[in-house]
Amino acid sequence: MAEKNFDAFKETIEQHFMRHPAVTGNAYTAWFARGSMTLDELRHFTVQFSVFSNQFLLAALNRAINADTLEATRESKEILMNELGVIYNDRGKRHAGNDSGDAAAANAANHDREGDPALVHVEAVRDGTEPD
Predict the structure, then answer these.
(1) What distances in angstroms separate CA 129 from CA 74, 75, 94, 120, 125, one per listed residue?
(2) Which residue, 37, 104, 120, 132, is the most exposed by fewest CB within 10 angstroms?
(3) pLDDT digits over 99-110, tens only?
(4) How far apart are CA 87 and CA 113, in angstroms?
(5) How far is CA 95 from CA 14, 109, 112, 123, 129, in A?
(6) If you write DSSP's letter for every residue of 58-127 in order, what string do you get?
(7) Is the separation of the CB atoms in 80 and 60 below 8 Å?
(8) pTM assigned to the model
(9) Phi-psi bin for 16: left (phi > 0), alpha (psi -120 to 50), beta?
(10) How far is residue 20's CA from residue 35's CA, in Å, rounded to a whole number?
(11) Cα four-point dihedral sign 78, 82, 84, 89
(12) Cα distance between residue 76 and residue 66, in whole Å
C-alpha cells in the first residue's frame, strides 16, 4: 500500500512540478550554471545563501521542537544534526569495527566513516519505517 502511495506521489511530482517552467526553463539557474557572475553578484549570492542557511537551521530546530510524534522528533533531529555536520547515530546501533577488542583497529575502521551509509540514513523513508 505504501509503495502504491509513493508511486502516485512520484507521478504527481513528475506531472505537476517537474514539468513546470520554473524547473524546465529557469533563467536564473541557467545563468548560475554558466558561472558568469560578477564579483558583486557573487557577494550578493553569498549573503543571501548565508541568510537562508541561518534561517534553515532555525526552521529545522522549530520543526524538531514542535514535532507531534516521537518519530517525527527523531527524524527532525536527524536532519538538524546533519545540517550541523554531526552524524546522528540513533538507537545505539553497533557498526563494523566497533565490536573489535582492539581499540586502535576500531578507531582506524571508523576514522573516515563520516557520511557512511552504515551510520546515517541515505534513503528516504516512504512509509514511516526505518530503511534497512
Answers:
(1) 12, 11, 19, 15, 6
(2) 132
(3) 445 555 555 455
(4) 10
(5) 37, 10, 13, 18, 20
(6) HHHHHHHHT-SSHHHHHHHHHHHHHHTT-----TT---TTTT-S-HHHHHHHHTT-TT-TTTS--S--SS
(7) yes
(8) 0.42
(9) alpha
(10) 24
(11) positive
(12) 10
In the chain, the N- to C-terminal Cα span, in Å, equals: 18
Residue with cell 514511516: 128
- Amino acid symbol at 64: A
pLDDT at residue 91 is higher than 70: no
Residue 37 confidence class, pLDDT cut points 50, 70, 90: very high
Phi-psi region of 91 (alpha: psi -120 to 50; beta: other; left: phi over 0): left
Tell me phi and psi for residue 84, to 5 degrees. Answer: -85, 0
Tell me which residue has cell 540513533: 90
Task: Report the range out of 33-42, 87-96, 100-109, 119-128 with the highest average pLDDT.
Answer: 33-42
